[in-house]
Design brief:
alpha/beta; 6-stranded mixed beta sheet; 3-stranded antiparallel beta sheet; 17 helices; 45% helix; globular
């Protein structure tokens, strides 16, 4: 009889451990988790002051090319000086060409001391007289002309506006967008200095107050949709916050769950998302918050190679815009979830796990070769587990345990256990 009771208790204990909802019983009082977050915030504030400020302070042997914010008057005068030099070249019979910094992968380098990708100082010639480059040269000259007009009128336009000024020449917006980045490199200024912005995409909600072009915005009173991140970072000023951390979210669906549940009131934080692939405005806004508020940044992304790629763009920069990584990157972002090891740890059902495609597996293996991944042994371990298991999962897989499992169990337990990389 006693043996039967023992077996029943053992079976009951085993069933409890296999029940995903038993994690809720592991949660400590919110006051305990808040103490953990307060300590994280203090550590982040002290570590941010010790990081080297620039490439020049490292005295590296390789020459690099970086751009900086320039006033419109400087952009205008630089374009005019370039036009004069081209005119002299044409009049002397030498024709004209642009010296364009190379943005190829071979001309990029990851600097571990700064934890970001930078552009080496190598350029290539783009002559008008060459059949191979005449079209690109023409587009470059046209965009320089348009940027000069913007500087004279002191107005902003979107990349889409720029494309529609000469659709027959540009043919596709991706071509005008690419040349716009080349022009930034040629002039030595950030893309925002050119007064060309992307359409609003990212949103922010939570414990943040800031000035948007003189209007004070309280992000706790913006409803579930939050406040659209201004495409022009120069409009943003006077940031104030009592948050303990910034929660960077990959997907709009997870952001809406967090916003509707007012997660930022239970655990004081600022929640931000670019609704997928990071745009320039969201990257600039995140960096500005990190620098001015001295807050740690925790990331919530899908458990797949693309989630980690999105995280790396925020943290280390994109190869496409490595020339402006000093202004666009937010180093020391911590990977909170959803990580490959979480799939078994939190008993994610098999039907909520997706098989990785061959492309997914190749992307994962390629990431394992990246220096910014190798620098973090935890990232390497998680990526190896992902590639080996050939399984991926979205943040929404947690909804299989209840629509509010993300905000009521998963994230609080992650924060309590300091379970980030």
């Amino acid at each position: 009889m006693a043996d039967k009771k023992k077996r029943r208790r053992a079976a009951s204990s085993s069933d409890s451990e296999s029940d995903p909802l038993h994690f809720k019983s592991k949660l400590k009082p919110d006051s305990s988790i808040l103490q953990t977050l307060t300590a994280l915030k203090s550590a982040s504030a002290s570590s941010s002051s010790s990081r080297p400020a620039s490439l020049s302070s490292l005295n590296l042997p390789t020459a690099f090319r970086e751009v900086s914010d320039l006033p419109l008057s400087s952009v205008q005068s630089t374009i005019e000086s370039l036009a004069l030099s081209l005119a002299h070249s044409i009049l002397s019979g030498a024709g004209f060409s642009f010296s364009v910094p190379s943005r190829a992968s071979a001309n990029q380098l990851y600097v571990p001391e700064l934890d970001r990708i930078v552009l080496k100082d190598k350029s290539s010639s783009r002559p008008f007289a060459s059949v191979a480059s005449v079209r690109k040269t023409t587009i470059t000259a046209r965009i320089l002309q348009l940027i000069h007009q913007l500087s004279l009128k002191n107005i902003h336009v979107t990349k889409r506006d720029l494309f529609y000024t000469d659709v027959k020449l540009f043919q596709d917006q991706s071509q005008s967008d690419s040349i716009l980045d080349d022009v930034s490199c040629i002039l030595g200024c950030t893309r925002s200095s050119l007064n060309v912005v992307a359409s609003e995409k990212g949103v922010v909600v939570g414990r943040l107050i800031f000035s948007d072009n003189g209007d004070m915005i309280d992000c706790t009173k913006m409803g579930m949709g939050g406040k659209a991140i201004p495409p022009n970072i120069d409009r943003v000023a006077d940031m104030q916050s009592d948050a303990l951390f910034i929660l960077l979210v990959e997907k709009d669906a997870a952001y809406m769950r967090l916003a509707e549940d007012r997660f930022y009131n239970r655990f004081p934080c600022i929640i931000v998302t670019a609704k997928g692939q990071p745009d320039v405005a969201t990257r600039l806004f995140l960096r500005k918050m990190k620098n001015e508020l001295k807050l740690p940044v925790l990331a919530l992304v899908d458990s797949d190679p693309y989630g980690l790629k999105i995280l790396s763009v925020y943290g280390c920069g994109s190869k496409n815009m490595s020339y402006d990584s000093a202004n666009l990157t937010t180093p020391d972002i911590k990977w909170l979830g959803v990580r490959p090891s979480d799939l078994d740890k939190y008993k994610i059902p098999e039907q909520c796990r997706l098989p990785m495609t061959e492309t997914d597996i190749k992307t994962g293996k390629d990431l394992l070769e990246e220096d910014f991944v190798k620098k973090n042994p935890g990232w390497v371990e998680e990526l190896n587990l992902m590639v080996k298991s050939k399984q991926k999962a979205e943040i929404q897989a947690l909804s299989s345990f209840g629509f509010q499992y993300l905000t009521e169990v998963y994230l609080p337990l992650k924060l309590q256990q300091k379970d980030w990389l």
